[in-house]
Amino acid sequence: MRVMGIDPGGAVTGYGIVDGEPQGPLHCIVCGCVRTRSGSPFEQRLKLIYDEIAGVIGRHQPQQIVFEEIFISRNMRAALQLGQARGAALIAAVHADLPVFYYAAREVKLAVTGYGGAGKEQVQSMVSGLLQLNLADWPLDTSDALALAICHHHRTASSFRLQGDRR
To answer: pTM of the entire structure?
Structure first.
């Protein structure tokens, strides 16, 4: 199963695609980020996010897309921009007719590190180990996106095992 995680932001949108069988190891197919220019008009930044995410989807053909559930922010402007960036990436997924899933940040951290209150650096370290990648020079948004994909893969693999036990 090939899963794409997306961690949207107005300045940096991280993405990562992992692939693997339900019972087997995971492999990173691609990871990276879309960086937008802070001086550019925001609608152009959203277009860039859409275009880049749609391009990654087209080139690497994930079967499912995962986003973090929306959280409440005290900074309304930042929350609105985050929501718009998320919408641009979400439209790319929907345009490709892919199923979209959502997980709470705490659930993703728990799935990857074993602790729901883990910091972003801990998540990055565990993702690096799980996928045998050196992510130290990548933005945390990239490792967060990979963590989303890993979480979904683990959740789906667990469901697969449970269904197999019922047969």
So the answer is: 0.92
Q: What percent of the chain has pLDDT over 90?
A: 77
Active site residue 141: yes
DSSP codes of every residue in 118-164:
--HHHHHHHHHHHHT---TTS-HHHHHHHHHHHHHHHHHHHHHHHHH
How far is it, in rounded angstroms, from Cα 94 to Cα 91?
5
Q: Which residue has the higher pLDDT, 88 or 81?
A: 88
Neighbours of 9 (CB within 10 A): 21
Q: Which of 19, 52, 141, 144 is catalytic?
A: 141
> Distance between CA atoms of 113 and 22, rounded to whole angstroms?
19
* 7 catalytic per annotation: yes
- C-alpha of 140 from chain center: 11
End-to-end CA distance of the chain: 21
Tokens 């996928």: give the residue. 131
Q: What is the CA radius of gyration of the chain?
A: 16
